[in-house]
Specification:
Blueprint (H helix, E strand, L loop, with lengths): L1 E7 L18 H11 L3 E5 L2 E2 L11 H9 L4 E5 L11 E2 L1 E5 L3 E9 L6 E3 L2 E3 L4 E10 L2 E9 L15 H12 L3 E7 L8 H7 L3 E2 L15 E5 L3 E9 L8 E8 L2
Parallel strand pairs: 1-2, 11-12
Antiparallel strand pairs: 1-16, 2-6, 3-5, 4-6, 7-10, 8-9, 10-11, 12-14, 13-14, 15-16
């Protein structure tokens, strides 16, 4: 049996109910939380800070800081394609694994053809990203995928009307044989059918009822698995290290 964790770390910015947007970045708190979980595989979203104008700091400082201190883990990272109209929220994906990772891949997920207002500026959404790698867990090959989809509810529309990102993720899921895990922040508001779509592709959400976001009562964060893996245990873990709760799941192989 092995453990997995998916966590939108909000670029290391903690949570205070009385001042939700005014907290300083505290990567030490993020690190302490991850170390306490001691998961075999960690999917992280919003690793780095986003900036107005699309600036992306290279090399990615938060990722490298965590990689240096999460001893015993191999890791991969990806930024999405830069957007000159980026909004200053977190971005960047990482996978940490206690077994070596190989065959790193990235798939750019196109933005919807819509506009929205932020900071008195009319903007277009950014591209999103799916990253993946392979690890050998208990002598078995496991494909690990991590993504962070567009929050359509924040721009007054729905992924049901703009399916390109989730359709590309489904296409990737269907490519692979053997054990496959997909973690991430799917930004699926009530009424959006992302979970049902992935279930039809043969992937099961480890849990889909318990809220995972502090700002609105939404279940945004998921770990999906196919039938090569058996879910043994799942829990949603609140932490003041982010405005998201983490989702932890433990799996065994079905054969």
């Amino acid at each position: 049996m092995f453990s997995t964790l998916t966590f939108n770390m909000q670029n290391g910015q903690g949570w205070d109910e009385g001042n939700p947007d005014g907290q300083a970045v505290n990567l030490a708190e993020t690190l302490a939380f991850l170390c306490a979980q001691d998961a075999d595989v960690i999917f992280l979203q919003e690793v780095e800070r986003g900036y107005d104008g699309g600036r992306q700091i290279q090399p990615p400082p938060h990722y490298l800081w965590l990689k240096e201190r999460l001893t015993g883990y191999d890791a991969v990272f990806g930024y999405p394609q830069p957007n000159p109209q980026e909004i200053p929220f977190g971005l960047g994906l990482a996978i940490f694994s206690k077994v070596p990772l190989r065959d790193f891949q990235r798939v750019d997920l196109p933005p919807p053809d819509v506009t929205f207002e932020f900071g008195d500026v009319t903007r277009v959404p950014s591209q999103r990203l799916l990253i993946s790698a392979v690890g050998e867990v208990e002598g078995r090959r496991v494909r690990l995928l991590n993504t962070h989809l567009q929050a359509f509810f924040m721009i007054n529309t729905s992924s049901n009307a703009h399916r390109a990102q989730r359709d590309l993720v489904e296409r990737e899921l269907r490519k692979y044989d053997g054990a496959v895990l997909l973690g991430g922040d799917f930004n699926s508001a009530p009424g959006e059918t992302v979970i049902e779509q992935f279930e039809q592709a043969g992937f099961h959400a480890a849990q889909k009822r318990e809220i995972t976001w502090r700002r609105m009562p939404y279940v945004l964060d998921h770990i999906f698995h196919n039938d090569a893996l058996r879910l043994e245990k799942c829990q949603v873990i609140p932490t003041p290290a982010s405005d998201h709760h983490a989702v932890r799941a433990e799996f065994s192989f079905t054969k």
